[in-house]
UniProtKB/TrEMBL annotation:
This is Peptidyl-prolyl cis-trans isomerase. PPIases accelerate the folding of proteins. It catalyzes the cis-trans isomerization of proline imidic peptide bonds in oligopeptides. Residues 34-193 form the PPIase cyclophilin-type domain. Coiled coil: none annotated. Keywords: Isomerase, Rotamase. One of its GO terms (molecular function) is peptidyl-prolyl cis-trans isomerase activity. It catalyses: [protein]-peptidylproline (omega=180) = [protein]-peptidylproline (omega=0). One of its GO terms (cellular component) is cytoplasm.
Length: 194
């Protein structure tokens, strides 16, 4: 009597199925925006921001659309409302409430997307938080490298790629404690996508 057996067919994996999933660089710049700044009505220069669309696509879209102003609200004409020398400069309140609130393109705010990108580079662009930890339009730019205390708390979405001297000029404007409101008017006179 011959033994019974059956063949088990195991299909070979195609090359694209067996290769590991390609990881995209979270700090790859996928989009660029600019902000032209005035201090007390005098041109202070341009800041160019590189955005990390691979890391936080929803947050980057929110920021880019606000730079463009294409949905009826945007950063053009808004102020840098807080200057903390040696730490950050803050702006992006599109509601005109001097930093007390903001508004996203998705509604009033949206949940923080993730905290993949660290605050370890001078000029890191990050979103400020609402009381509930959500994100709206308000943002800040770090003015020092060692800002790790912000990691896991704020969504970093890009970095300054040109015009850090303009950020330093903003940082140099004297501010009044305890709110750190600058004593000069610092406006985003124009902004958009490059």
């Amino acid at each position: 009597m011959e033994p019974e057996f059956s063949l088990l067919f195991i299909p070979q994996a195609r090359a694209d199925e067996s290769s590991p999933v390609e990881q995209k660089n979270p700090r790859e710049i996928t989009e660029k925006c600019f902000m032209d700044i005035t201090v007390d009505g005098v041109d202070a220069g341009r800041i160019v921001l590189g955005l990390y669309g691979n890391a936080v696509p929803k947050t980057v879209k929110n920021f880019a659309v606000l730079c463009e102003g294409s949905q009826g609200l945007g950063y053009k004409g808004t102020e840098f409302y807080r200057v903390v020398s040696g730490l950050t400069v803050q702006g992006g309140d599109v509601t005109g409430s001097h930093g007390k609130s903001g508004k996203s393109i998705y509604g009033s705010s949206f949940p923080a997307e993730n905290y993949k990108v660290k605050h370890d580079v001078e000029g890191t662009l990050s979103m400020a938080r609402t009381k509930d930890g959500d994100v709206d339009s308000r943002f800040f730019i770090t003015t020092r490298e060692d800002s790790g205390y912000l990691d896991g708390k704020f969504v970093a979405l890009g970095r300054v790629i040109a015009g850090m001297e303009v950020v330093k000029r903003i940082e140099g404007v004297k501010a009044t404690p305890p709110t750190n409101k600058p004593q000069k008017s610092i406006l985003i006179s124009n902004c958009g996508i490059l």
